[in-house]
Automatic annotation (TrEMBL):
Protein name: histidine kinase
Source species: Bradyrhizobium macuxiense
Sequence ranges assigned to domain HAMP in this UniProt record: 185-237
Gene3D superfamilies: 1.20.5.1930, 6.10.340.10, Histidine kinase-like ATPase, C-terminal domain (3.30.565.10)
Keyword terms of this UniProt record: Kinase, Membrane, Phosphoprotein, Transferase, Transmembrane, Transmembrane helix, Two-component regulatory system
Length: 472
């Protein structure tokens, strides 16, 4: 099951491109606004210069003609040539009085800007500032030529320009995002192959390899991936071979230990029982009070021999090669039911034929079942354990596989159970055996109780026969 957390890379990169594009548009809009304000300042400064020179010429003409009745100031000629919407032109005397003033009307088709934009624009640019030039006559200033633009007109024009840029942004940004997303989707398409390859490796398919890619970066990733897959496959092969050898050595040591216990410890216990029986006969005739001690020695020796038989059975199970896996497992279940006297209850369900299994598969599956039943009965405190073994025939002549399932109703929350099942050598040993067979193992602890063990082991084609179901 795939579990890819986090957001889509294409979407994330597209959003970042959109944010960068929006920022660029904002910077461009700011630049245009500043440039427009600079142009307006230059224009009103030039108008102020023209007005001041015109008024100086008028004053010089009055003085040259010596005609004090000539009208001054006369800004009609200047206003006629430079007047624009919102532009205001005036002459201000040294006393501050406005002698003459002309203002162009505002355009009626310009929409009023939002209050927030108007406040921001006025804060940044101060559109009502005046351009002032002194008017000189005979070396003295007789007044000032004053030029300014109505702030409302400048703000409306700025909003109109900004609105056009925003319209361009609204059209261009979605198109840009679509193109970027499509380009990223095409460029990142090889990452799907990389993800599939990683999923195959995670699922145990070490034959997964990546093809070469056009992009150098992705091609380097593919080369490293293929090298790691090859090395992992080699390491796993070496580990499986070593595990097989260790399992063989372990089984050999178990057989040797079982032989030593049977030959030495078993014979000693048999001798103790014989001596206890002989001492009992003597005690009957000569010392009746010793009968209880002789009987106690005999019972202790008998109990020890029963314990020894159980240990020998676990150390040296029946010969699976001779009895077969199915018969060996049925005997194992019968032995557990006999020793536990119905608590817990062990059940076995077999489906298929296991007569022609390789010896290594049969022996390892037997050991896996033996370990699992021991954990369920002794550590989890289960009252019911069900063992299911199924031979799954492969279609079209492929390899078959054996499916092993063990379910119990024990207590997985028990600390002792956790030690044995979750982190103990029992589950670790089972995993190693399954890995050596090239199979898969999974373990799930139920809530609030119960546990399930699943093992699937491949078997070479032709090892099985027609399915036959049997339950015990």
């Amino acid at each position: 099951m795939r579990n890819w957390s986090g957001s889509d890379l294409k979407l994330r990169l597209t959003l970042r491109v959109a944010a960068a594009a929006t920022l660029c548009f904002a910077v461009i809009s700011g630049y245009f606004l500043f440039d427009s304000d600079r142009a307006v300042r230059a224009r009103i400064a030039a108008v102020a210069d023209i007005a001041a020179r015109t008024l100086e010429l008028q004053q010089n003409k009055i003085q040259w003609l010596n005609n004090p009745h000539t009208e001054f100031p006369d800004l009609d000629s200047v206003a006629a040539s430079v007047m624009a919407p919102g532009l205001c032109l005036a002459f201000r005397s040294n006393g501050g009085e406005i002698s003459q003033r002309f203002c162009g009307g505002a355009q009626t088709d310009t929409a009023a800007p939002p209050l927030a934009f108007a406040a921001l624009y006025r804060r940044l640019f101060d559109p009502g500032r005046e351009a002032v030039r002194p008017v000189m006559a005979r070396g003295h200033a007789i007044g000032e030529a004053v030029v300014w633009v109505d702030p409302a007109v400048l703000t409306a024009e700025a909003w109109h320009d900004a609105g056009r840029l925003m319209a361009v942004l609204m059209i261009a940004l979605p198109l840009l995002c679509a193109l970027v997303y499509a380009a990223l989707a095409r460029a990142l398409r090889p990452t799907l192959l990389i993800r599939d390859g990683l999923e195959r490796i995670a699922a145990g398919d070490l034959a997964a390899r990546l093809p070469p890619f056009d992009l150098a970066e992705l091609s380097a990733i593919g080369d490293v991936f293929n090298q790691l897959a090859e090395r992992l496959a080699a390491a796993l092969s070496d580990r499986n071979a070593l595990t097989q050898k260790l399992i063989v050595v372990q089984d050999e040591e178990r057989r040797h230990l079982a032989r030593e216990l049977h030959d030495e410890f078993g014979q000693s216990l048999a001798a103790i029982r014989a001596l206890a029986a002989s001492a009992r006969l003597t005690a009957i005739q000569d010392c009746p009070p010793l009968l209880a001690e002789c009987d106690g020695i005999a019972r202790t020796a008998t109990d020890m021999m029963e314990t020894l038989r159980g240990a020998l059975f676990r150390l040296r199970p029946p010969d699976v090669d001779e009895l077969g896996l199915a018969a060996s497992l049925e005997g194992l279940i019968a032995g557990w039911n006999g020793r536990s006297r119905g608590q817990p209850r062990f059940e076995i369900v077999l489906s298929g034929s296991f007569a022609r299994l390789p010896a290594s598969v049969s022996a390892n599956l037997y050991r896996i079942v033996q370990e699992a039943l021991t954990n369920a009965a002794k550590h989890a405190g289960a009252t019911r354990v069900v063992l299911r073994l199924e031979m799954r025939e492969a279609p079209s002549g492929g390899d078959s596989e054996i499916a092993l399932a063990i379910d119990d109703d024990g207590r997985p929350g028990n600390p002792q159970s956790d030690l044995q099942v979750t982190s103990g050598m029992g589950l670790l040993g089972m995993r190693e055996r399954v890995a050596a067979l090239g199979g898969r193992l999974s373990f799930e602890a139920g809530q609030p109780h119960g546990a399930s063990l699943r093992v699937v082991v491949p078997v070479a084609a032709g090892a099985g026969a027609a399915p036959v179901e049997r339950a015990a």
